[in-house]
Amino acid sequence: MTANRLAESLLALSQQEELVDLPKDYLLSESEDEGDCDGERKHQKLLEAISSLDGKNRRKLAERSEASLKVSEFNVSSEGSGEKLVLADLLEPVKTSSSLATVKKQLNRVKSKKTVELPLNKEEIERIHREVAFNKTSQVLSKWDPIVLKNRQAEQLVFPLEKEEPVIAPIEHVLSSWKARTPLEQEIFNLLHKNKQPVTDPLLTPVEKASLQAMSLEEAKMRRAELQRARALQSYYEAKARREKKIKSKKYHKVVKKGKAKKALKEFEQLRKVNPAAALEELEKIEKARMMERMSLKHQNSGKWAKSKAIMAKYDLEARQAMQEQLTKNKELTQKLQVASESEEEEGDGEEVEELLVPDAVNEVQMNVDRPNPWMLRSCTRDTKEAAAEEEDPEQLPEPEAHEVSESEGEERPVAEEDILLREFEERRSLRKRSELNQDAEPAGSQETKDSSSQEVLSELKALSQKLKENHQSRKQKASSEGTVPQVQREEPAPEEEEPLLLQKPERVQMLEELEKEECFQNKEVSRPVLEGRWSEKTPNNHPDAPKEKKKKEQMIDLQNLLTTQSLSVKSLAVPTIEMLEDEVERNQRQMIKEAFAGDDVIRDFLKEKREAVEASKPKDVDLTLPGWGEWGGVGLKPSAKKRRRFLIKAPEGPPRKDKNLPNVIINEKRNIHAAAHQVRVLPYPFTHHRQFERTIQTPIGSTWNTQRAFQKLTTPKVITKPGHIIKPIKAEDVGYRSSSRSDLSVIQRNPKRVTTRHKKQLKKNVD
Amino acid sequence: RRSPLVRASPPPGSARGLWRPRRGSQAARICHQVTPAEVASEGRCQPPPSLRPALPTNAPALGRGRDRTAKEPPPASAGRQNYGASQDPAKPASVRSSSHVTGSSMGKAEVACGRRRRGAALIWNPSWSSAGRATKMKVKMLSRNPDNYVRETKFDLQRVPRNYDPALHPFEVPREYVRALNATKLERVFAKPFLASLDGHRDGVNCLAKHPKNLATVLSGACDGEVRIWNLTQRKCIRTIQAHEGFVRGICTRFCGTSFFTVGDDKTVKQWKMDGPGYGEEEEPLHTILGKTVYTGIDHHWKEAVFATCGQQVDIWDEQRTNPICSMTWGFDSISSVKFNPIETFLLGSCASDRNIVLYDMRQATPLKKVILDMRTNTICWNPMEAFIFTAANEDYNLYTFDMRALDTPVMVHMDHVSAVLDVDYSPTGKEFVSASFDKSIRIFPVDKSRSREVYHTKRMQHVICVKWTSDSKYIMCGSDEMNIRLWKANASEKLGVLTSREKAAKDYNQKLKEKFQHHPHIKRIARHRHLPKSIYSQIQEQRIMKEALNRIKHSKPGSVPVVSEKKKHIVAVVK
After folding, report:
1. Contact by Cβ (8 Å): A705, B169
2. Does residue A424 have a pLDDT over 50?
3. Per-residue pLDDT averaged across A89-93, rounded?
4. Which of B364, B385, B431 lies nearest to residue A730, judging by beta carbons?
């Protein structure tokens, strides 16, 4: 069996030429021989037998060297071997003979190698190729999905997509392609060349260029202007100095000097604030001046003038004063400049002495702000302010950016505002719609009454509020007038804050109050009188007239409601009692149904509805009375009955209703057939709800109803194209993708895989 | 923002900081007076600002809430909210807050008021009494900012102040409806799409090509082998070439616009220079390739020197060689057209006469997929903005827009033609395409609509064989059997030439109005109304009747005939 299988596999192998590695030496030939018929073999045997007759080589073994498909019984022979064939030999397993071992080994080797499956046929291979390629391409294409989606949903598309930059051909290019032909042109060119006029931009000769290089025009202009300004300023200053020098008035000079001193002081102050270091230097200078002053004899009343004055001083008051002045001046000048901070500090100390009770924290604030700045201590408060300002400074520092941001915001904000405006408009529109609807629904009479009633209510409320205010004010005044407020009242946390609440819901507060009372009662009996006192004190204020009235009104309404509901229930109960008299069998069921639907009386509802519809459809009277016209007007006054009668226009009786004789039907006569022809009957496609659609219709887009910007925004076209500009297909680079680096051509040339066989044949034919 | 010039005092709730005018504040104010709570709070806080005197800088913080000073808006933000009113940052916030800026026109006057009152308040300071409060009135001055009503030049339009409060405009919808109706009517009145007819060919125009760089140049090939180059601005033929013997089957320009290729019935591919020959030179093609079989179509690669021809197979050629670098087949049938994808340039689409559309990948040199339709597809065209979308013009009167990744169902079936559709071309914006039909008309379809928005025809226009949409998306050209090339406006009622800004605004507005009210029956009817030649009209009627009659679902037992959607109906198979 095994041999058989082996043979088969070998056969298969032999058909596949490529898988080679077959033991060709002997196996193949044998297998080929096997096909030969037995006749030959017999002939051979015969020949052998004949040859053996001569005695040589008599004992040749008949051997079977190879497993064959057909093992004929005749082949098993002991012929010539001289041995007797025993059955046991046949039963024995085949012994490993040396010649077979090699074969086996080889066969094993072949066996261990798996047979390669048949290659797919050409169509299938191609199909697989196609499928793979298709998947690959689909993947490549799917990168366009977001862009396509974006473009489809875009509010506006502007074509061409890429910004075209106008290409201006440089002049040398233009010139190089152009040649002077006519004599005039040639002459001009000659002239130009003679002057070495360059053709390129800038059109300057070398000389001009050199002169320009020396200094640019603008720079020169600037410099000249600067010089001019400086000269002018100098001349002004000189003129001024000359003029001032000529002034003889001593008073003037004094004033000037004083002014200068003041100015210097101010500057110094300023400097101190801004630049403490510079201020210190200044201070040193001042100190130096003081030293100089002390060293010198100026203002010491030792000069010639002073001496003369001293003589005169006895008699002349002025002279004495002058001397005094000088001395004070001297003192002033020589006085050591007190570092102002020290004095402040002293003051602070003084304060501390005064108020020892002041907590340390206050001083700590001062101590915390320790800097090398000598001015620091002096103006603590100011410093803290400045510090705050400095702290704010970093916020201000990135101002340019912030500014930009704010600018961009500013750009956006109007848009947002437009949106808000639009929304607001829409709201109002819808409001208006609703109110119109209401108006339609309500009969005119009721509306009017409502209006008047609402006005009445308004006026009432106004009066009320006035009262309240007065009340409140008087109370306040009272409170202020009472110098000694009892302890209880003081303990009230914020009476004024509590008040509105109280006013709004007097009962509720009362209840709370009571609750509190109870609690208090439980907890502390001691506090009870106090609270009660408080309560009693409050009550007059808490119950002004108006809320009471209001409350009463509400109660009335409630009562009515109660009444109506009660009557309903009574009636519904009454019907089944009549039924009870009828058939006993049906009774139960009916009873059950009645019970189940006890609440809703369908027929009554329908009748009511119909009555309302009829009422609504009736033409309404027009009341043209103007209250206050030709008579006294004001709150609470009604136009006289006569006047009302006179100005009431009665509506003509309308045509009879179609459902007049149909008690169980309401026919709506409101529907306007003529209008229906202009109305949209089916909800258009992109809308999902009719309200959406109505809203879009109700929002106007014209400039009559919108601001200019909103109008522009609302009417932006979806696609903008520039006339005369070529729109190229979208490119990967346009939308930020990297286009493939390799060109299609190079790719296709790199795999010269298939010029199909068919085509090859064709080509061959062509060549032939 | 225009507000009434005189405005009552703002509600005290908003008295803090700057009060911005709000529409509908009238109602709010009434409510405000009604609510007792607010009345109380008002009483508690202070008199309303109109009664309150302006507080001077050094005046004691009288009648101010504790939180008031703290919550005063910083001057910077206040300045931002204040519309155009000059504000002195040195001025204390209290003064500013007391002068409520209600609008740009009020701003300055009020600030001035505030200043004046400041002086007055100093006098008043010692005696803050209720009587004093009562007598002190806030006087608001009427003033207008000249910027709001003065024209810069006399050529400007007069500024008309307008109140946009919707409460004042109750009839906006009816008015807009009437405007929309008028706009629609005018659109129909001005719909004169036909611009010019280019005549000169001596046989039917078989193919058209656009110049890629020049809008004015158009190339056309005729059935007698003649190629003409036209100048659209002059509406003249500027060059005539006898390119082939027999039909010029296809023509395409090189992407750079320097040369163009033609294929003809004489089995040749010829490359021609775009510029004419110099004086005395003979009209000769740059290259000629002799093929074995007839080439029926040609298209050039969008970026590289590669072109594709179709016939018995799709061949890809390098311009420099006389042999194709690659040829692709799938089945054996004559391929009528081949088109390169303009975005992913290695993709090709072709349609063969055995009713299929085949897609190829040039890089992998293999076909990708094939879809078989009911009837033969004449041409396909790729969407220039959407890489995977193409539209096929079919013999069964329909056009099919496919997503090439999902060929089993077309994205949209475009129906309206009453005869075979012969050619299709996309608008360069990718939003619409135009189709030419054997029914002697061309139609414009939006990509996402199944019905056409426009139909063009003239009495003398015969079967339209080729159509092209110009690359500025404004015009359409079609070549037809009766030897003419016609030039149409893509938008029939569009005004040509430069528009003033007002014209533009009006145009945009009208467009939006038409869009807004397009579903209203009257407007819809007018917008849809087209005059059709009798042949087309009767055909439409006939086909409608036939469709009704052939409605098997309607005439058979419910459930016995499966419902197949229109999209699926025409697809026979997709072959991988």
Report:
1. yes
2. yes
3. 65
4. B385
